[in-house]
Amino acid sequence: MSQVNRLGSGGYIDRTQTLTFTFNGNQYTGYKGDTLASALLANGVGIVNRSFKYSRPRGIVAAGAEEPNAIMQLGATEAAQVPNIRATQQALYSGLTARSTNGWPNVENDAMGLIGKLGGPMMGPGFYYKTFMAPASMWMTYEKFIRKAAGLGRSPKEKDPDQYDHYHRHCDVLVIGAGPAGLTAALAAGRSGARVILCDEQEQMGGHLLDTRDQLNGKDASLWVSQVLAELATMPEVLLLPRTTANGLHDHNFATLHERRTEHLADTAPDANQVRSRMHHVRAHQVILASGAHERPLVYANNDVPGNMLCGAVSTYIRRYAVVPGQRLVVTTTNDDGYRAALDWAEAGREVVAIVDARPSPEGDCVKEARKKGIRIITGSAVFEAKGSKRVTGARVSGVDPATFTLTGVKDDLACDTIASSGGFSPVVHLSAHTGTRPIWRDDIIGFVPGKVKGLTSVGAVNGVYALDRILADAAEAGTNAALASGFNVAGVELPSVTKQLESKPIALFQVPHEKPTMRAPKQFVDLQNDVTAAGIELATREGFESIEHVKRYTALGFGTDQGKLGNINGMAIAARLLNQTIPETGTTVFRPNYTGITFGAIAGRHCRDLFDPERYTALHAWHLQRGAKFEDVGQWKRPWYFPVGNETMHDAVQRECRAVREKVGILDASTLGKIDIQGKDAREFIGRVYTNKWAQLGVDKCRYGLMCKDDGMVMDDGVTTCLGDNHFLMTTTTGGAAAILEWLELWHQTEWPELEVYFTSVTDHWATMTLSGPKARDLLSEITDIDLSKDTFKFMECRQGQVAGVPARVYRISFTGELTYEINVQANYAMHVWKALFAHEHKYGLTPYGTETMHVLRAEKGFIIVGQDTDGSVTPEDLGMQWCVGYDKPFSWIGQRALSRPDTRREDRKQLVGLKPVDPKVVLQEGAQIVLDPKQSIPMKMVGHVTSSYFSPTLGHGFALALLMGGSKRMGEKVYMPMADGTVIEAEVVSPIFLDPKGVRQNV
Amino acid sequence: MLHIFCPYCGEHREEAEFRPKGQAHIARPLSPEQCSDEEWADYLFFRDNPRGIHHELWVHATGCRKFFNVTRHTVSYEILETYKMGEKPKVTAESLAKGGRS
């Protein structure tokens, strides 16, 4: 197919480079410099998609980010699939493969279109809410159907072959948008020597100057653009970022800029070392917002039929891409800018049927030029209905009175294939609103402008200034001021001369009235992407939705990738008219990042796959790997979970490991335990204030278990702290709590007790901890240490320093298993040596490595809690039955003490820690199972607690559990019940949480 | 993403380096056991939620690990000052009402 709509000359395309591309399976050609949209229009492709809800045929409407219809699925291969790309923003490259996101079996003949036609009248706003409301279980089914029907594009099923980078940048002045305002501001700031970043979302910088009829210095405006860009390129502190969308503007001038590096070359990066896109995280001292304005279409009947376009887009396609998207044009406008499309069309040699102007007596320079060219101008009128279904075939025109929302005078039918409309301009305020600032309505420009944001200046069209001479002057001032505010001396810029254009005032018209009432007229689309009609908004207001935020959610106005670019102001204006309010009273909806969609890859950057989250390994990790350990994630740590031998199941391995510790000796890598070195003359006093129990009498080389509460009296951490010297302690914390506890100690020291002289240092990674536990522990350790291990010299809850396997070590005689235990601590780099030295005696003593699961079983048999598993932030030391660990008469009111006398913590029916012994010894209760006292009561049953830890004990020969049970300490011997999801009920007896060796004989041998 | 001046480091740093720790200037009663249940509950649980000026405690968690105070506007998110522990705010709702800078 030849490029039927391509002009012989003009445009910024390279006619020597023909590019072949595929759209919906058909091959076409375009030129380098085309967008996918301009190439499709050049080839006369009218229908590019089907609409979201009604499945109506749709064509290209716009030429930029505001395009609602030409939403494409890109990618030649499965891995390269990218959904929801606007054809208007996609540069053409050789081999580009695009499909419509909507339309089945194809956009020309669509099955859903039939449903849209038949069901159309019934598919009002809220249709999905009303139809698919119940039952909830069916939603998954509905959703699948809706998504397929809606055709929102699809994500690739294969791994993304591309790489993405994150950059972090700081600059003095960030200029967003490189049209006339942005270029001038960047030049003014750049000449001062300030660090400037200028970004622009399009393929080429220049914005409106690339397709304007205005001249600068008496010449084509693009010449001035080239000069400015050339000068900016020579400035060492200026960074030019083309193809870069400022997609979010956050607090304190933090902007995210998405730079597409290769998407104009191929669907995946052509070179494996190339990065597909970069996300620049920019902190700017000053931001100059020069994001321009989007033209607003007029809302009239059948304004979605292919061939309906924006006036500005028509000019852009003709002047930038040398494409005339039709043969016979009717313009319907409320302002002078609409005339430019007609003039460009006529100059391209095609027929302008008429310009229909809503103003009674327009008199601007453009109007005069159109008259001079002999173009028919119909004033005080508007197109109120487009004719045609797959392509515009005519325009119905009538006199219109916007004030009374009525048609006047005689009606006329004009034959044409293209209708270009302009209802004025909507400044692109999106970024300014991302921080929560509301845009401000201005009656004089019939649009919203950005509200006040600190450190941000809006210039040009986004600020409601449309005359080129004023844009340039404002921008020069803004660039100068931004540089001054950043502490730079300004060199000044000379502004190019502009031929003044006399413009007549625009008129406010949004929806064009129809001869029938809105509800019965052919559909008048407000939001083309989401199929929201004027009648839909009318229905929403009639059903009682008065807030614009509610109207938005009920109708889907401004949803999806569109985010209210094209339709929002029209929708608000229509809602305002129906609610008898002004537009500022109605207000805008909230604009949120991202301004246009970006791929997840760009958001993730390098933080994916192996680099998604750091993994922490202990010094013994390699040994565990070699021994075939299965690992458990504890925070970022990889901890050995269990060490299967041969084909052992987890259950078998854990039973074997448990028996080894109880009968011989086992070893656990406990290096991940948090370790905080505490020094200073007030260290002891400080520890006494943050732990519940007493520390005043703890001698050197003695260890003590401590419980830590928040000031509300609830347990937050526990661990053993050792006195290494009068002013020197080593605190251990739970593996997961290490960082939080260090911060907790600092909080109290820095904010409440700065007078205490005490210092905290995290030494978690510096010391490796090997827990040697079991009756043979002493015999084994004595093989490789010079420390006297005899029972009466090195007692339980004591610490010794000495040599282990020839390296300096701290050995703590503490026990989390209930067996004779030595915790051997050495510098992490020595750990493997010591570990191997112990394993040299593996067979002599039956040394068995065990993992966290066995540790859990062994500690639970002893009733030792795990903070965060057996507690949940609502459990006091007394609830745990740990009154022995509470210093009620300590002189300083320690953290949590006062709360223990609050009425709530004194309640008799608090949940308390108990043991549960299932009546059937083979049963292992489910952790989290809810406990009831009477299994025969009707649903909902009264739940009185839950199982917190549950295992099978090879030592006890039965399943056992720890649980939190209402009034549990007084229920010893009672039966409780756990109703399961399958209808069965498990019965268990309430027993002491200490199942094994309640007197602690085994650890004290 | 706030840009926060750490009064100890003497530099502006990204929000990601800091953690908010709630309302500032909540002093623990010196004699907790003498407090009524109501006074103790007030200290433990009750915090202001102003629209406007808010004094907050932050910690430079991945920087110097120091706690400090921030005066922040809860609507605009503007940070009006940061100051060290033990210091008093210069900008308060009262000082602004008397015509201080906004």
Distance between the termini of chain B: 21 Å
Q: What is the count of distinct domains of chain A?
A: 6
CATH homologous superfamily title of the largest domain in chain A: FAD/NAD(P)-binding domain
Tell me, what is the CATH class of the largest domain in chain A? Alpha Beta
Binned, the helix content of chain B reads 10-25%
The H-level CATH homologous superfamily of chain B, spelled out, is: Folate-binding superfamily
> How would you write the strand order of the largest sheet of chain B?
3-4-5-6
Largest binding interface between chains:
A-B, 24 and 31 residues
Query: Which structural class do you get from the secondary structure elements of chain B?
Result: alpha+beta
Proportion in helices of chain A: 10-25%
Task: Name the average pLDDT of chain A.
Answer: 93
As an assembly, this protein is heterodimer
CATH topology of chain B: Folate-binding fold
- The CATH level-2 architecture of chain B is identified as 2-Layer Sandwich
The Cα radius of gyration of chain A reads: 38 Å
Shape of chain B: globular
CATH class of chain B: Alpha Beta
User: In percent, how much strand structure appears in the residues of chain B?
Assistant: 25-35%
The CATH topology name of the largest domain in chain A reads FAD/NAD(P)-binding domain
What would you note in describing this structure?
By secondary structure, chain A is an alpha+beta fold. In chain A, 22% of the residues lie in helices and 28% in strands. Chain A has 6 domains: 14-150, 2Fe-2S iron-sulphur cluster binding domain, sarcosine oxidase, alpha subunit, N-terminal domain (Ubiquitin-like (UB roll)), CATH 3.10.20.440; 163-293 and 427-485, 3-Layer(bba) Sandwich (FAD/NAD(P)-binding domain), CATH 3.50.50.60; 297-423, FAD/NAD(P)-binding domain, CATH 3.50.50.60; 516-594, Arc Repressor Mutant, subunit A; 673-763 and 876-906, 2-Layer Sandwich (Alpha-Beta Plaits), CATH 3.30.70; 908-1005, Elongation Factor Tu (Ef-tu), domain 3 (Beta Barrel), CATH 2.40.30. In chain A, strand 41 and strand 42 form a beta hairpin. In chain A, helix 5 packs parallel to helix 11 (468-485), helix 7 (311-321) runs parallel beside helix 8 (337-347) and helix 12 crosses helix 14. Chain A is elongated and about 115 Å long. The model of chain B has no long low-confidence stretch (mean pLDDT 94). Chain B is α+β, with helices and mostly antiparallel strands and 102 residues long. Chain B starts with a strand and ends in a 5-residue tail after the last helix. Chain B is built from 2 helices and 6 strands. Chain B has helices at residues 37-45, 93-97, and strands spanning 3-6, 11-14, 19-23, 53-59, 67-73, 79-84. In chain B, the strands form 2 sheets. In chain B, strands 3-4-5-6 form a 4-stranded antiparallel sheet, with no helix packed on it. A two-stranded antiparallel sheet of chain B has the order 1-2. Chain B is globular and about 40 Å long. Chains A and B meet through helix 20 of A and helix 1 of B. Chain B: This is Sarcosine oxidase delta subunit.
